Design the sequence.
């Protein structure tokens, strides 16, 4: 299990009309930070996100339905992943997307713990 801590939330990062969250580590540029949630990993272990596994935000648990082709690599290298809280549609796949169920944004605040399981 990988654990991360939310250390920054950009002013445009959470939009109820767009069911997605963009995460980066602290290497994100100033412009990206406006639209992103910055996470700081608390441990470094090899991991691989896969369908059927879970991501938890504090006590809010989501099941992974689909993992885009570049999601694992980008998450490991620059802490970047786009979390999508909507049904996966193959014709519109975000290559760095991780599609999660239930289809609702979690409550996120500074200090939220993210668990990649």
Sequence:
């Amino acid at each position: 299990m990988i654990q991360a801590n939310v250390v920054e939330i950009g002013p445009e990062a959470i939009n109820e009309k767009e069911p997605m969250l963009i995460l980066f580590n602290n290497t994100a540029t100033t412009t990206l930070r406006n639209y992103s949630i910055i996470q700081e990993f608390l441990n470094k272990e090899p991991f691989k996100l896969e369908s059927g596994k879970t991501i938890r935000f504090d006590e809010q648990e989501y099941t992974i339905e689909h993992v885009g082709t570049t999601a694992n690599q980008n998450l490991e290298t620059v802490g970047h992943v786009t979390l999508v809280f909507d049904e996966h549609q193959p014709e519109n796949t975000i290559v760095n997307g991780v599609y999660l169920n239930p289809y609702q944004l979690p409550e996120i605040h500074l200090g939220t713990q993210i668990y990649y399981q």
